[in-house]
# Entry
Amino acid sequence: MEEEEIETYLKALGEELERQGITQPIRILVVGGVFMVCAMKSRDATEDIDAILLDLPELTDKPPIEIIKKFIRAKNAVAKRFEIPRKWFNDSVKEFLLDYAPNPPFSLWKTFQMLHVFFPPKEYVLASKLMTFRLKDYDDVEALLQDVGIETREQAQALVDRFVPDKRWQEHYELSKNLDTLF
# Structure
């Protein structure tokens, strides 16, 4: 998905949420590739939209509450309308991201009717990418390191400490090994 497609799908999702009878905006925090495409402008595309539903439980919670059912129907209607995979919107990032870095700061990026889309600060995105580093994230991490002005392992560690102060999470995600790979 390129930036224009991302915005098209999110706009359609906002419209579908309204059609489903949602009367209060649903707030989502977008991270991952969409952040890199739309906020950082450091790459052209991403495979899906990784987002955290800020005011709702996860889409996979059982039994789903009515608002989640409506959200899933709206999400699936967008997939059908644009002939894209149903996994175009992925909220599974919440499972681990909010475990080790709860209550991230965020600011409004755009509104699409009943959908309000927020971005975290780039420092938060970098800290989370350092925690869960994968080789496929190398270019994203490099772009964020440069933009944030981090040049040393110590600076990177201090940044992660700011958002993930619990050393047990850092050990669980092998942060030290990740930083060794990058610095």
Observations:
- The chain has a mean pLDDT of 92.
- The chain has two domains: 3-120, 124-182.
- The first strand starts at residue 26 and ends at 31.
